[in-house]
């Protein structure tokens, strides 16, 4: 892998995945299932939901399917891919969605980080937020992303830690049960 890192840094991710699959097994590469229903049920109209994406993932289609399920499809479902020059359109769409109860998806938030702190101010100062309004944000990992926007709610973090602990214990017990079989 050192040679791959030196000569083909663009291939290091695939190389690490291949190594993990060979040494530890495919189960360590498959992501945990995300229940969009449970995310929606735990969400609120005043708190955005942030998806930090791994390469090749995009929750937009799943969110659209969820919108159909909760009767917010069609004109009630808005999305905007952020980038240079999109700040005004993003804020206009936000105010419209807040008052009308639309679901709003901002894609590629890492490309317009300056909007995030302003977005937080608009959400906290909004006088009238429709109860059906939901704000969904997608971003790639980005060190410039504001901490206030990306903080995970306390219950959600405890649930996530509990899931990871269960997974860790089950993996440790798997290794302990197979270690003497060589």
TrEMBL record:
InterPro entries: DHC, Dynein_heavy_D6_P-loop, P-loop_NTPase. One of its GO terms (cellular component) is dynein complex. One of its GO terms (molecular function) is minus-end-directed microtubule motor activity. It comes from the Eukaryota. Residues 45-148 form the Dynein heavy chain region D6 P-loop domain. Transmembrane segments: none annotated. GO terms for biological process: microtubule-based movement. It holds the Pfam family Dynein_heavy. Gene3D superfamilies: P-loop containing nucleotide triphosphate hydrolases. This is Dynein heavy chain 10, axonemal. It comes from Cacopsylla melanoneura.
